[in-house]
Each structure stands twice: as C-alpha cells, then as structure tokens.
User: Fold Meckelin from Macrosiphum euphorbiae.
Amino acid sequence: MELYYLITILSFVTFCSSNREIISFITPENCSEREYFVPSLMTCRQCNDHQKSSLDRLSCICEKNSKIVDKVSEFSSCEPCPSNFTATLDHLHCLKKPNVTCGLKDIELETEPNGLPLAKKSCIRCSPGTFPSLDHTQCLPCQVVNCTCPQTSHEWLLDGTLCVFSQNLTLWPDERETHIVEYDVVGVDVESKYLKKHLRALLYKCVKMKNRMSCESLGNLCTIQMYKDERKVNPCRVFKDYRRIPTSSDADRLPLPWIYYGEGDASVALNRKKITSKYTIRPGSRKSKLQLVAARYNLNGSLIKLSELSPVELQLCPGLWNGIESAFRFGARYFQTCNIPAKQLIGQLVSTEPIFYDFYLQYDDGKKNMLYAIPLLVRNIKVGSTYPNKGRDISQWLLTRRMFLMDLFSGISTKTQGLPTVIQYLKTVKLVVQAQREIENEGNIYPPFMVLEYGQITDENVSSNELCPVTFTVEFYMENDILHYVDMSLGILSGCVFIWSCIHTWSESKRCGRMAIDLWTVGQFAITCCSHFANMIFVVCLLLAVHTLFFYKAQSVVYILLPSQDLEAVVNRYVVIAFLLKIVEIVRLIWKQTTIDIFLVDWEKPRISPNQKQNGIMATQKQTVSIWRSYFVANEWAEIQTKRKISLPLQILFTILLLKIYGLENWAAAEPEVHLTEVPYRPISQLLGFGMLVIVFSIVYIVQWITTVAIYERYIKNCIQQFVDICSLANISVFILSAEFFGYYIHGRSAHGFSDTDMESLIGQLRREEDNMVRHRGLMPGTENQTFEMTIPSSLKTYYRRVMAPLNNIQSKQISGSSFRIKKVDKTDMVKIGQAYNNMNKFLAAFLDHALKDLDYEIREKTFVEKLLGIEYSDPLDKGVFFIDDGHSFDQVIFYGNECTLVIFDLMMLSFFYVLTENIVLSGIITGFLIKVMSVIRTTFGKRNLAKKTLIDERFLI
Assistant:
C-alpha cells in the first residue's frame, strides 16, 4: 500500500514538473539553425539528421545537398547526395551537376514529365502563354481547370486547388449543418462562406496530413465559434481528447495548439503558486509592472510574431490614450470604456481577417525569463443551454487559451455578398490579477487570467450605425478576511445594539407609562433597533473604508491591495441598508416632534388702572392681558424648530469643493500613489471614494461646528439661549410634553413681575436686571436655572387631557382638521376655548408655584447613570421631578438638539447617492434638495401642531 502511494505521488510530481503551463520565454529567433520552433508549446525542437531549420524557424528542411528519403511525418527524413551530385530544388532526387546555364525564358528541368528524375539538369523553353517562375523551376503552372483529378475517386477542395481521396473525407461529409455558425447573442444562424470553403480541407490536412498550420487554423475557427463542439463536424471536436494542460507526454499527438483547459481545472489552474517573481508597488521599479507577451497568429494558422503585448492592442476604442501604458501597473486598477458607432468599428480595421492571440506572463525566475500561460474566461461559452462561465462557481468554469478582437469573416453567408450578416467584436476584456496574501509570499501573485465577453451586431445594426459599448479593465486584488471581519464585527456589535435598544425602549416605555410589553412596545423596540443598527452598519463600513484608504496609500511594501469589486459591492449594499434603516429613525423623529403637547403659560396678571370719577367716586378698571406676547413666543418657537448647528448648504458646498475642485477625490483613485489631479483611465475605487467622502465631510463639519459653537454662538448670537431670554422678557413659560409623562420646561417668569408694558418701562427693567437689582430668573429662588427635564404626575396628565378634550372636539369640526382657525369657530366654542385656556394656564401656574396640595414636584439633578443611559429612576405617579439640565435640554424636541442624528443622516444620504451614482456633485445636489424638503415638512407640520396645542391661529405663525 505504501509503495502504491509513493508511485502515485511520484507520478503527480512528474506531471507537475513536465506540464507546459510554465515555459521558458523564447521566440523563433532563439532556435538554432538545426532547430525548429513549436508555437503551441513555446519551445525549440531538434531537426532530424541532415536537416536544418527554415528561414522562419518554424519547420525543418533538408540541407543544401541532401534529398528527402521518405515523407511520412510533417518533417521528412533526409540523406546527403553522393559527390558530384546535387539535390533538386524539391529535395526529392539527386542529379549530376550541370555544365550549362539556362536562359531567362527557360526553366531548369529536373524530372521527366512522369516524375522520374533526369540524369542531369536540363533547360527547356516555356511554351507560349506561360512564363518561368521566379525560381525558374516551372512554367507557371497550368490552370486548375486544365488539371486532372479523378472525379470518381477523388474530390476537389479549396475551390479546386486540393485534390483529396474521397475515402479520407468520410468523417467530414459536405453538409449544410457543417458550415453553420450560431450567434447566440443576436439569435442568428449563418451558413458561413468561409467554413464551406475551408473547414473540410483544414480538417483533412490537420488530421490526415498532420499539418501544423492547418491545426492552428482549426484552433482559430474553434475560437470563432465560441468553443462549441456539439455538432459531428466541428473544428472544436478535433480537440476533444486534448482538453487539458499539455505535457511532455503529448509529443506524439496531432500538432494541435493548446486551446482548452480541462473541465474542473479552473480552480487548480488559478490557484497555483508557480510564478516566483515578486512584484512591488514602488513606482519606477522594474517589478512594478506586469510584462505580458502575446503570440499572434493569422487566420490560416501562420505565426505572425511573438513579442511583448501593449495594452493598445486590446483596445478597440479609437483615438490616442494618454497613460495607457500604465494599464499593467501592479496594484492599480485600469478602466477604459467607450461607445463606438458600428460603421466606425468596422471601418477602423485594415483587413477582414482577424488576428488571434495566445497570452503569456513574462517573469524572471532568478536565472532566466519565463513565460506563464494566461487562461481566458470567455463569458459567451455555452454548454447545452447554460453559460458556465457567467456563474460564480469557479469549479464550473471552462478556461481556454485563444482569443480574437473582431470577426468579420465567419458571418459572411454563402447566399449574400458584401457585409457579413453578423459581426463579432470583443465587448469586454478584463485582466484579473490576484496577489498572494501570505507574509512569506509578499509580492507574489497567482496566475492572472482574462475575462472576455464578445458582442454581436447584425448588418441591420450596422446600417442604423448603432453604438457598440467597449470596455477594457485591469483589476488587482488580494483575498483577505475583510468580509469575515465585517460580518464578525456586525455580529458582535449586534448584541450590544440589542441591549442598548432594550434600554432605550424601556426608558421610552417608562416615560409613556407603559410598563407591560405590548404591541406598541414591540414597535418602539423595532424602530429603535433600526436606528442603532443603521449607525452600527455605517460605522463598520466607514472603518473598513478608512482602514483600506490609509494602508493602501501609505504602504511601501505589498501589505494590502484593494478588495475585489464584488466585496466593494457588498460594502455598498451595507451602506444602502444603513441609510434605509436610518430613514425609519428620521421619520419617527419628525413624527414625535410634530405631535408634542406644548402649552405657553402666561404669568402676566391683569393690572387695575384708575378711571374717571363717577358721582365723586374714583372708579377702577381691570386691564386685560395682551395675547401678542404669546404670539411672539410662539413665532419664535416656530422659527427655531429646524435650526441647525451648521449650515447644510455650506457643508455640501465645501465638501464638493474640496473633493472636485481641489482634487481630493483623486486620492481615492485605484492606484497606490496619491494625486490631486485626475489620472487617465484610473477609476475611482468606490470603497476609497466612500472613505474620502466621509473624511472630507467630517472635517468640514468639525470646522463648521467649532466655528458655530465656540465662536458664533458664544460671541455673536445663540438662538436657543435667546429664545429662553425672550420667554423671560415676555413673562411666558413653555410647558412641553414629548411623552405621556415626560417633557421639558422653560421657566420664563419675569423677574420684574410683569412685562406687558411700554418701551420705556421695558428698557428700565432690563437696566435694573443688568445692575443685579432684581431677583434671579431661575425657578428656584437665588438660581439661574430656567430649563428642566421633567417627569410629571399621572394626575396632572389626566387633568391636562380633561381640559383639552373640548378643544379637540372643536378642532375636529373644522374642515381642514389640521390647524386651529378662528374664523371656523362659532361663538359658543370660542367661550369654551377661552375657558379651557384660562383653566389650563391657572392650573399649570399653580402647579409650578407649588400651590396644589395633591400635585407637587421636586427639583434635583440627574445621577451619572441616569445621564449616561438617558433614563429616569423616579416614579412620577404621585409627585413630579424637575431635573436641572445644561440650559437647553428642550432642544431635543427640535432639530437643534438632534444634531448628531441629523448629521449622520445627512452623511448616510450623501453616501447612499454617491454609491448609486458615483458622482459627488449629483449626490450633493440630491441630498441638499431632499434635506430641504424634509425641513419644509418639519416646519409645516410643526406649525400645525403648535397652533393646535397652544390655541393660536395658524395664520399668526409667520
């Protein structure tokens, strides 16, 4: 058993060491005078004895004074002629050396008409109507029609230039199906004129005569037909027994080129570690660029040349391409695309015959230059009814070796002339290079491969001059555990998000007086989870983008390459999901802010003024309290509802300015260098672009925030603090309930006792307050604390509902049903409104003054845990609690206090549209417009709610 395993291992090692996937880089010029070059194997082989290589080094011929002994194989064996004899030009016979010189119109005759050799060379004059050939070996020959070919036993091929014994053609009958070419993209079948003329002849010359050039031509035709071999007579069927990487054991096979890899070989071939050259990302280094070599063939199978491949050769896009030579820059991406009119696509070709390519990677193994065969993944290959190369399952891929740029000949029908019925062109070509990730293999790569997709256009498309898309891409990437780390981070953080959402939901339920788990609680928990999960997903994607950006751009050795575009697509999907989840939170935020209970508590007392004497007695009159102060405070509240700490138009403008105008967007180009100018055909990596967008947006925001908070609001104008001052000036407090038993209070009771006065008295009041001649503004004596968070007793909420119930009934009668309009209220209801307003005002004033026996509250500060978790431990069933805040906790019911949530939403929206459009300018415009729409919606519904709850006609809200 051990011996069996040993033999198996040795056989495998022998196979791996002898396969032709990796070969030395040689050209025909590297072969000696006694060697010939085998293009499909990229090697030189020794000629037989008394033979030398031909001028092109692609075959062997007899030496000058040698004749052919037999011609069984492709290269015959030779032997030298005796002394005093010379070989004929065809090297079939040896003749005595002649003593005469032939004339210009003569040919040198070396054989009898029956083919027997002459004793010596003789001269003969060509008959009229003929002329000697350039080598004076024949009178240019009789025309085909005058030649004889037994029609009973033989058959003419190649338009009467090849006479073949019919029995040798039984495997390839002359049937219409043999010449059909199927074009699956356009769904057209064409009986090809070229196949009808050449296919059977090529099959005969390759299989029966073992002619190497004919076999190469069959490989070209197989490539043209997208490697289909389902028909009995097909050029691809010749290769059915050779669908594998050729090895040295294949020396005796037909001289077939290497066209196919074996089925299931893709995963093995693409994951080998046989390329020993180490590449670097340092610019200017010899190893910072891939060296690709191409063997080019004519349609007839003849080798054109073997030389370095320029990226221009893979381009069908017309014009000059600056920077195209950097397409194979290691570690960078390249992207070139264009739409070519069909007529221009055809017109730019010099010949209708295509050039066929076999690609190799040239590398240095430390001793000499080597070539590694580059496999091709042709998306158009069809097996039965499936396209295995379009799927992601690498085990199903069918790799091939040969490709072409454009096919104008196979679609020429036997029934038509002129343009072909169908034209094939290389629509997409993508060179994919994967770097090895192991530290010990730093700079090594796996075998590169090309992904090809061919487009097809019909003659009707050409007539209408339709646009043909063409794309050329080069992608370098390195497999890593980024996606695993992302999933793991999301999994771990999901637990934290779940716990945090439970705490917030419990706090919200407590504030609303819902201690049991019901449907409302579950809904609130789901919405809270959406909010926190959105933040978590976005942060994880952001950290991934920033990490990749810094390490990819700052590395000096190959530590990290850009993730594959598939992974970038996964990150993009995460960004989209995060934004959609964030929308749920924003909708809830706007809904909560536009449905709060708000009441303006007027502390102003009616004053008694003396009137005229009546019957000698001085009469007095009670003055009414002006409502304009309430209107003024309500308008100020409506104005600050959508106030932000930053200016969003400036935020988007400066972000776009830095990214597009100053060129910071070019830092996200898919290459290791950093440029402020655009590099031709170097695409912007979406992952790096996302990272740069967030970085620039954050920097602009931080600068704006510091400018606003530290400078503008401190030394120039603070709208939130001014609103509190206005409340004190107007002698009006603001009582806000954002939840059933939780809210905010702004203590606006004037320190002067009244504020409904004239200009002179008002200025005097402010002067006395500046001179510290009046009591403090705070709710507690001797303090300045005017704003509080509060939990209210349940009985207070019960009374609030009972007082406001008639008002809700009155408002429900109105046509609009959305705001309070005086003109729609009758006199009876006006009395009820007035009574309800006065009752609520007196009740809340008494509660705030501790004048109610059964309703009271205490004032204290929140504990550290309460501040950290955003919860309140107090039980508000019997007694309320006012928590001293930082001076503006009430801003939680307007945009100003939710700046963090809103700026994250702004950034998510901008990133969302950037991911969709890949255009920062368009994304900024759309984001600015939608944020403005959101602000208008918030203002509109906020005013309507303010009018309902404060009993102020909406028409007075400017």
Summary: The mean pLDDT is 83. The longest helix spans residues 519-554. DSSP finds 19 helices and 34 strands in the chain.
